[in-house]
Design a protein that fits this description.
3 helices, 169 residues, alpha+beta, two-stranded antiparallel ribbon
Length: 169
C-alpha cells in the first residue's frame, strides 16, 4: 500500500493507494504503471520473469477483472516470455518489454522481443504428458480470443505479439 501526503506543515489530506507496491527492487526489472495496467522493461532472469508473472496475475484484479482472466493472462505472458528467451539463442540476458492493460472486453497482453523470426508452431499435442516444449502457440489459441505478430513500435525490438484475453476456459 502506498500513501501520499498532500500539503505542507500541517497534514491536510492523505491519498491511500490500495494497489500492491510494484517498486520492490528486482534486478533487471523496471515497471511503469499506467491507467488500467503496466509496462515492464526487463532483462530476462528468474526473478524478473517471476515478478512480471505476479504483476500480470495481480494488476487486472485491481480493476475488477475476473480472477480466471488474470490467471489466463499470466500463463500467456509466461509462454510468450519463455518462447522469446528460447528463440533468441543469446548467450547474454534477453531484453523484453511486457505490457498488460485491462480494457472493456478483457485483458490485452503485448510482449516485445528482439527475435526477428515469426513464432514457430510446434507439432506437439497440447495434451502430451512428455513434451517439454512446442505447445506455446497452441496455448495462445486456447487461452486468447486472438493474437497477432507485428513489427514492434519499440526501437530496440524486432516484433511484438499482441493478445486479447476476454474469456477464461
Amino acid at each position: 500500500m502506498n500513501a501520499t501526503v498532500y500539503g505542507t506543515g500541517t497534514l491536510h489530506a492523505v491519498a491511500v493507494d490500495e494497489r500492491p507496491s510494484r517498486s520492490a527492487l528486482v534486478p533487471g526489472l523496471v515497471v511503469h504503471e499506467y491507467e488500467r495496467g503496466f509496462r515492464a522493461d526487463l532483462t530476462a532472469s528468474r526473478e524478473a520473469v517471476s515478478g512480471v508473472r505476479a504483476l500480470t496475475r495481480e494488476a487486472p484484479s485491481m480493476y475488477g477483472t475476473e480472477r480466471d482472466l488474470a490467471e489466463a493472462a499470466e500463463l500467456v505472458v509466461s509462454e510468450l516470455m519463455g518462447n522469446a528467451v528460447r528463440a533468441s539463442d543469446s548467450p547474454v540476458a534477453v531484453a523484453l518489454v511486457v505490457e498488460v492493460y485491462v480494457t472493456p472486453p478483457g485483458i490485452v497482453v503485448i510482449v516485445h522481443d528482439t527475435v526477428p523470426e515469426q513464432p514457430n508452431r510446434g507439432e506437439t499435442a497440447l495434451d502430451s504428458s512428455e513434451a517439454e516444449s512446442g505447445r506455446g502457440l497452441g496455448i495462445l489459441d486456447v487461452l486468447t480470443d486472438g493474437w497477432t505478430v507485428e513489427p514492434s513500435k519499440e526501437p530496440s525490438f524486432a516484433k511484438q505479439i499482441r493478445c486479447l484475453i476476454s474469456r477464461a476456459e
